[in-house]
Write a structure and sequence with these properties.
about 90 residues, alpha+beta, five-stranded mixed sheet, about 40% helix
Length: about 90
């Protein structure tokens, strides 16, 4: 998860994420986007995306469309949907 977090951090350089969003990969851990920070310590966020570590990798590489992930059950969204939609602009 640390490597994925570093990759996300590099991809977001010079950008800021409005709100807070958590990628919850269960026992593999979490990655949180909050402002300009990318964190791996679990905390409450505005929106949570429950996804496997494997599917998170696919999502970040553009191999999994977020809407398709939701429709097929590979991605579950809870909390503020507006925050989740902001993620699509960054991907």
């Amino acid at each position: 998860m640390q490597d994925m977090a570093k990759g996300i951090s590099r991809g977001l350089e010079g950008k800021s994420f409005e709100g807070s969003l958590k990628f919850d990969c269960g026992s593999d851990g979490v990655i949180i986007l909050k402002g300009e920070a990318v964190l791996t310590q679990d905390q409450d966020t505005d929106c949570t995306l429950k996804i496997s570590k494997e599917n998170l990798g696919k999502l970040l590489r553009g191999k999994l469309n977020a809407m398709t992930g939701v429709m097929t059950g590979k991605l579950k969204v809870s909390g503020n949907m507006t925050v989740a939609m902001r993620l699509a602009k960054l991907l």
